[in-house]
Amino acid sequence: MAPQLTTTSYAVLAQVAVHPWSTYELAQQRVRYFRYVWPRAESAIYREVKRLSSMGLLDGNKEWVGKRARTVYSITDKGREALREWLATPVSPFAMDFEALIRLFVAPLGTKEQIVTTLTQVRDDVREMLRFGGEVKQEFLDGISVTQDQVYIRALAVDFFISLLNTVGAWAERTLAEIESWDDLSPDGKNERALEKIRELPVLTPESVERTPVPPRTQLHPRRR
Amino acid sequence: MAPQLTTTSYAVLAQVAVHPWSTYELAQQRVRYFRYVWPRAESAIYREVKRLSSMGLLDGNKEWVGKRARTVYSITDKGREALREWLATPVSPFAMDFEALIRLFVAPLGTKEQIVTTLTQVRDDVREMLRFGGEVKQEFLDGISVTQDQVYIRALAVDFFISLLNTVGAWAERTLAEIESWDDLSPDGKNERALEKIRELPVLTPESVERTPVPPRTQLHPRRR
DNA sequence: GGACACATGTAACGGGTTACATGATTTC
DNA sequence: GAAATCATGTAACCCGTTACATGTGTCC
């Protein structure tokens, strides 16, 4: 049996499918391709191309720059076939790591300044990513993108990226504003206003029929026997 | 030196800070706390509590259920102090894993049906998460949440969650509609329309930035590990 | 009294990360 | 011609995963 490929493998295959790259270029150009939707360390890419080429999915061509070797990889028919088969398998769901939310939960342990700093960082990170998104947009409008012939597909992805970041950015802004309007991080007098805000959130709540009567929460101190 | 804690460690600490839990409850209740913003396997939690308690940040109490032991953990002062110190460090940026976008990029290698299936899966995943979000909302409105006294904080997080999912869901819907309006996945005659759509995306491009003076961006902080 | 879900973990593998090494090119 | 930066990787540790193991209440 061939060893199992990971999503990272397919991400690399997908990038090489566009055109051949040296490993270094591959690792660098991930920024323009998958850095924000499938972030991985550079060294993972180096390892991945070797695996893929040992399996015959990539074709590695050694070149020489002075006394240094470098390898340029292109995708093979077998590689394209692997991608094709992958497309028929179930997709893994959208997932995120958002440390700032964990900090928010314990924010009252720290100072107001700290949580404001955290949220400001989030806002700035998002701005930076949006700046990058604007760059990509401009590249396509100028007609100079490497994947210019694929605009009809890439546009869908850029749409996703921009929409999502605008949402996160807007959330950061309004949350900053809310917290800055507080005197401190204590609950005093804040919960009622918060309930009002929760009530207005755009999501359906389960109907009372389905509403499970509160299950007596698991006992923290079970009886001995 | 004490071993370095990871964000997962702090996530566990943060959850135990709410009130004591047995390890099993901890692992289960992650769904209601961090599953969607900091997803980790259950076994990671089991290992983490042992580490944290060996460091004195958690206090583990052995109890007996029949002949089986179980451990109930509560946070120590030292644990709360660790959380406090953590709040002063730079936050790690929002990150996501979104395999569907990689598939979208290579979609023309496969069939229209396949990419439609993938996007439908995304839409359904989002619906399920939104259903959960609605449940949480209802719990707060009913006043029965375990963190009822923290509504003023949790509301901010629920806001984030719902906003983000609505954005992803809306994107999935309109992308499905777009692709279903196509005869096939070839670029024929699609790129011009796509450029028009890109032009309308709500993000500043470098050119427009040059024309519109923008306040100097705050410096980005370094990445945490 | 057998089946089955719940409860409570452990073992082991592998992907991802950080740290390091070394040659080539540019800058001053 | 030294320093800094770019280019091209390798090594090793550790977090996160999947798979498994075993005890306990419950249902019919």
Structure summarized in a few sentences:
By secondary structure, chain A is mostly helical. Chain A has helices spanning 7-18, 23-33, 42-54, 77-86, 99-106, 112-142, 151-180, 191-199; strands at residues 21-22, 58-65, 68-75, 95-97.
Summed up, the domain count of chain A is 2
Give the SSE string of chain A: HEHHEEHEHHHH
The counted number of beta strands of chain A is 4
Quaternary structure classification: homodimer
**Uncertain residue segments of chain A:** 211-225
Q: Major β-sheet of chain A, in short?
A: 3 strands, antiparallel
End-to-end separation of chain A: 51 Å
Rg from alpha-carbon coordinates of chain A: 24 Å
* Percent helix of chain A: 55-70%
